[in-house]
Design goal:
By secondary structure, the chain is an alpha/beta fold. It is built from nine helices and seven strands; from the N terminus they run E-H-E-E-H-E-H-E-H-H-H-E-H-H-E-H. The termini are far apart.
């Protein structure tokens, strides 16, 4: 059976994905800040280093797939630390463990929020990999009453989607036989969105910004099935794709852009 390392395993999409893989007889080493086999804080350098060490130890030095799912949606610098730098560190740090697999795969969870307004300066700092400067910029945005609550989150997810586009076809990933892709969910019913979709009025307000004409707000297992396929042996040629699993938000918001 395949062995995976999956971050964000304690809740929502990560938990649904872990459950699905385990139902299918796969082994999943779950990672989270609480309630997981590997308990680490992915917002810190120490936590990221501990993840690599513990995943290596628990797997015996070889895994088949990486699921980088952990994320935060608070309008604060921590969202940048976890969603961008924590995700990149997960994928780059665990990549050597894929070397012994016959069908190595890697996937991360971005968001359709990458299509919403973002901060160009923050996106540029993330793309440059400058964590201290990106954190400082996020601090400025967090204190700016004029900036919307989603600006930091959207910027981190846009930079993450672009990271996949830039990295996937390089020698480190495609050259090593590793498909690297992203899922970009629309609104999914998880603890992250519970407040936002708690009442019909709030759901309608949110769906005005994030239209989901096909089947509306989704359960986390919808994303889990896509992630599981992207990291399965069946996926031999998807490379550097950001797959919107969003009930049509991307088709509505971006129209002719393909
Ligand atoms: P969730 O809050 O249910 O789960 C996120 C998990 O990440 C939690 O278990 C949390 O403890 C973990 N996490 C947060 N900070 C961490 C840290 N510092 N170190 C380690 N683990 C940490 O949310 P979810 O909706 O399942 O989100 C999963 C992913 O999907 C996130 O990347 C999120 O941005 C993305 N996403 C969610 C939606 C949605 O509508 N729910 C939409 C698009 C993208």
């Amino acid at each position: 059976p395949r062995t995976s390392v999956l971050t964000g395993a304690a809740s929502g999409i990560g938990k649904a994905t872990k459950d699905l893989l385990e139902q299918r007889g796969e082994r999943v080493i779950g990672v989270d800040i609480h309630d997981a086999e590997v308990v680490v804080d992915l917002s810190t350098a120490e936590g990221r280093a501990a993840l690599v060490q513990e995943a290596g130890r628990l797997s015996g030095g070889s895994i088949d797939a990486i699921y980088a799912v952990a994320g935060l949606a608070v309008p604060a610098p921590a969202t940048v630390a976890v969603n961008y730098f924590g995700t990149v560190a997960t994928l780059e740090g665990l990549r050597p463990l894929l070397a012994g697999s016959e069908a190595p795969r890697a996937v991360l969870v971005s968001s359709m929020a990458a299509l919403l307004p973002s901060d160009g300066e923050l996106v540029a700092l993330l793309t440059a990999g400058d964590e201290p400067a990106a954190m400082a910029r996020a601090e400025v945005l967090a204190r700016d009453p004029a900036s919307t609550g989603q600006l930091i989150y959207a910027s981190a997810k846009l930079a993450l989607s672009r990271w996949v586009r830039r990295e996937a076809a390089t020698p480190a990933w495609a050259g090593a036989g590793i498909p690297l892709n992203a899922a970009a969910p629309g609104i999914i019913a998880t603890p992250m969105t519970a407040d936002l979709i708690a009442t019909p009025a709030r759901r309608e307000q949110l769906l005005n910004v994030v239209p989901m004409p096909l089947n509306g707000i989704a359960e986390p297992t919808v994303v889990a099935r896509l992630l599981a396929w992207l990291n399965s042996e069946e996926n031999t040629h998807l490379c550097g794709q950001v797959i919107y699993v969003d009930g049509g938000s991307d088709a509505v918001l971006r129209g002719d852009s393909v």
